[in-house]
Each structure stands twice: as structure tokens, then as C-alpha cells.
Amino acid sequence: MITEFTPIQSTLGGLMIGLAAAAMLGLNGRIAGISGILGGFLDGSEGRGWRGMFVLGMLLGGLGLVLVSPESIPGAATDSLPLLAVAGLLVGFGTRIGGGCTSGHGVCGISRLSTRSLTATAIFMGAAMATVGLARHVVGGVG
Q: Global pTM?
């Protein structure tokens, strides 16, 4: 479990995410909702090229970080790749049911004062807190 308090890095990361989302909306007129971008790429929607490049950039960015600075991701859960795959599929399923993900609702929607996004974010943050509490205190499986 990561327990370090990193306010400077966290603030800089949040600013970078916010600037990227604002740039995508301001320059391209598109919401930086990752589940929608990936979903549109997979189902062959219009703009498949830019969507593919966006997803590829995210994957290569993560891979590049791991290769250049593996210690920057302490406690990366590589012991249970099948569990991570199932978790990823469940998150993807949930974002489809909820009509968006943390980036679409949490970053872009809340900044636009969308009631739908405020509601969705409150629900998935509450569900995340309940899941962590359950995993730590009932199942005992998360650090």
C-alpha cells in the first residue's frame, strides 16, 4: 500500500490532467473521457485514427514510465495479472453502465458543473470507498 504524502507531485499531476482535458476540449471540442475514446475506437466510430493514437499514447506513456523509472510505481500489482484483467473488465463494464468514467465525469463533467457528472462521480467514489473498506476489513486482501 502506498502511504506517502506527496502534495507537490499530486498537485502537478492534477494540473497536468486538467490542462490536457482543457486543451482537448478547447482545441478539439472533445471531452477527454477515456472510456468513450476507447469505446469509440473499438466499435469503429468516426475518428478512429485519433482515438487509436490517444490510446496508443496512453499505453506507451505507461510503458515508458515503467521502463525509465520502475521505482516510481511502488507496489505495482503484477503478482495477479488475471485478477487485474478481471478488475479492468469490470471497470470497463461499469463505465459503460454509468455513461462515462472518472476522466469524463470526474474531470470534464464536474468542471462543466454537469449535474449528471456530479451524481455519477459521487456514486463511483462512494462505491470505490466501500470496495476498499470491504477488501481491507472483510476480505483482508488489500494492503
A: 0.73
